[in-house]
Amino acid sequence: MAAMVDPGSTRIAVLPRSADWIDAAVVEGGAEIVDIDEATALVWTSANTPDELAAVLAERPEIDWVQLPWAGVDPYVPIMDRTRTWTCAKGVYADPVAEHALTLLLAGFRHIHTFARATTWEASAGRNLIGARIAIIGGGGIAESLIRLLAPFDCSITVVRRRPVPMEGVQRVLGVDALAEGITGADALVLALPLLNDTRAMIGAHELSLLATDAWVVNVARGEVCDTGALIDALDDGDLGGVALDVTDPEPLPDGHPLWTHPDVIITPHTANTPEMARPLLSSRIVSNVRRYAAGDPLAGVVDLAVGY
Fold this sequence. Notes:
Elements: E1 11-15, H1 20-28, E2 32-33, E3 41-44, H2 50-58, E4 65-67, E5 85-87, H3 94-109, H4 112-117, E6 133-137, H5 141-150, E7 156-161, E8 172-175, H6 179-183, E9 188-191, H7 205-209, E10 216-219, H8 228-236, E11 242-245, H9 258-261, E12 265-267, H10 275-295
Parallel strand pairs: 1-2, 1-3, 3-4, 4-5, 6-7, 6-9, 7-8, 9-10, 10-11, 11-12
């Protein structure tokens, strides 16, 4: 919980660059935007500049709350300390990312990628998402939103997550130690987990071999959670139906990379959550957290420093 702050004197800095909509959100929350040397809290607006943020905070112990702009905070974890409250946008972008994951699933199952590239009348192909066995790794907001979207398709859903607790609309919730059990025979594997030291390359050749031979892998998490070489090998060997990636390793995916031209791959350039989608959602989170901070109430999206997200 943030310390109680007089709402009339809530002073927040916005760095390294501001925007009208960010400023408006801070002001709507009831705060005054001030220079960093006058602030007690900071809205940080850069997704991948931890060294710059660390330098800003080094001489300013009075900054007791930092709001980060994205749900994925892996670049910032090394500089986070327990003397401050750190919040991020986790949960904010769940709906648009889940919608994109569903779009990729349907496109893959229905062979839209093949037909979209065709220059002649293709033979029929495709299968139903209805009744499919879906494994989701990650049990956060994206997974919860995707599970709701999948409800009309009557899928059999297994979720593998760090803390296995019951989830509505899910047949099985398993711990990470039961990963192999959770994904064996799945028709689709959706990756919606944070990038941590123990999730990097979590999906490799062995894990891919456990899926159904015509399964689709959908990644809306981080490219590094899946071994790119193993994905390509499984595709080349005919052990997967296809791969749909909104994130890649490396990212951006270089021109000429074999994934670009593979016939069973769909790539979108990290557009599951576009700036047009993100701005109103992040704005709402900033407004809410500024109000909470001023009132001394618990903030939304607090980073758990013990687990790194």
